[in-house]
Design brief:
disordered N terminus; lipoprotein; transducer; two-stranded antiparallel sheet; transmembrane; globular; about 375 residues; 11 helices; mainly alpha; receptor; GPCR_Rhodpsn_7TM
């Protein structure tokens, strides 16, 4: 979120910040100039690749959901909306941010600055809030599966998405009211940090409150998932047989031997009738299909639990450093951070828009299969 631009006291890649002052040595100055060019070129290529990868990954997710009818579910509508939001970040925010980061000065004018900052705050906040509504959807689906399955519709998902965007827009709008056109040439694009109340409002609304909600929801989901795993784990003794039948060396069955006292009754016609208990060994088997379903369900719960940890961990690693500095810098007047650090944390937050589609789709078998079919279709048609 380029809200960090409001905390840039000096350009990030200005000549003064990357060169060594050697007025008496022209050779050193030339070498420093070449070094600056190499750094700027490398940085421009790196940021361009990150931006392009973010566009492609989120674009593939959107196309996969759109073309695969099996994925037209309320849960995947939320994931698709997250991909659209992250795609907007890669189109509206990251290219201009890359240009500003590399050049170290703003050259696009005041109007573009206002549009870019509003788009940045809105899209990044909406992306974070999408993680919250996805977590909320999963929480309801796990803890109240029967009732929520009746309410879990695409219309409900659309309503949740609308709420996320309304909150994001409400966070990005206030700075527009106190921005004024400048008569002189605009060389920097930043949000005014004199409004401490807005800094608290925006950081808590865009990150700290959503993060607390994510921690609570994923904590509850983790506990529920662990409870289900323990309930579905097969016990060593005391199994309740839901089905049993006589065995005749049927392959692939997990048979257990029990001692029954049974013998076959013979009717007057000589046919064998219902068994009467005697001392004989009879083998019975637990339904393999039932046990297999339990094993698969437990494996899915474990995988989902791991996925939750990856999602939450990636989100916190990407956004926490940026929002710590965002909150601390305007309040602590004596604090100073290197401007390159602000840009690093800003782009670390942008990378979350690249990680989101990878995590959410690669942890879903339906997505992987649909994506593979789509790629095979593209290759065949080409």
């Amino acid at each position: 979120m380029e809200q960090s631009s409001q905390f840039k006291p000096i350009p990030v890649l200005s000549d003064q910040s990357w060169t060594t002052n050697s007025p008496n040595n022209s050779n050193d100055t030339k070498e420093d100039g070449v070094g600056d060019l190499v750094v700027q070129t490398s940085l421009a290529i790196t940021l361009s690749l990150i931006t392009l990868a973010t566009m492609l990954c989120n674009g593939f997710v959107i196309v996969t959901i759109y073309q695969t009818r099996k994925l037209h579910t309320p849960a995947n509508v939320l994931i698709g909306s997250l991909a659209v939001t992250d795609l907007l970040v890669s189109i509206l925010v990251m290219p201009i941010s890359g240009l500003y980061t590399v050049s170290g000065t703003w050259t696009l004018g005041q109007i573009v600055c206002d549009i870019w900052l509003s788009s940045d705050i809105t899209c990044c906040t909406a992306s974070i809030l999408h993680l919250c509504i996805i977590a909320l959807d999963r929480y309801w689906a796990i803890t109240d599966a029967v009732e929520y399955s009746k309410k879990r519709t695409q219309a409900r998902a659309a309503g949740m998405i609308a709420v996320a965007w309304v909150i994001a827009i409400s966070i990005s709008l206030p700075p527009l009211f106190w921005r004024h056109a400048k008569a002189e040439e605009v060389t920097s694009c930043m949000v005014n940090t004199d409004h401490i109340f807005y800094t608290l409002y925006s950081t808590f609304g865009a990150f700290y409150i959503p993060t607390l909600l994510l921690l609570v929801l994923y904590g509850r989901i983790y506990v529920e998932a662990r409870t289900r795993i323990l309930k579905q784990a097969p016990k060593k003794s005391g199994k309740r047989l839901t089905s049993a039948h006589l065995l005749t060396d049927s392959p692939g069955s997990a048979a257990s031997t029990t001692f029954l006292t049974c013998r076959a009754q013979e009717t007057s016609s000589g046919d064998t009738g219902a068994p009467v208990c005697l001392n004989h060994h009879v083998q019975v088997t637990v339904s393999d299909a039932l046990l297999e379903r339990k094993r698969i369900s437990a494996a899915r719960e474990r995988k989902a639990t791991k996925t939750l940890g990856i999602i939450l961990g990636a989100y916190i690693v990407c956004w926490l450093p940026f929002f710590i500095i965002t909150l601390v810098y305007p309040i602590c007047t004596t604090c100073w951070f290197h401007p390159a650090l602000f840009n690093f944390f800003t782009w670390l937050g942008y990378i979350n828009s690249l990680i989101n589609p990878i995590i959410y789709t690669m942890s879903n078998e339906d997505f992987k299969q649909a994506f593979q079919k789509l790629m095979r279709f593209r290759c065949c048609t080409s």
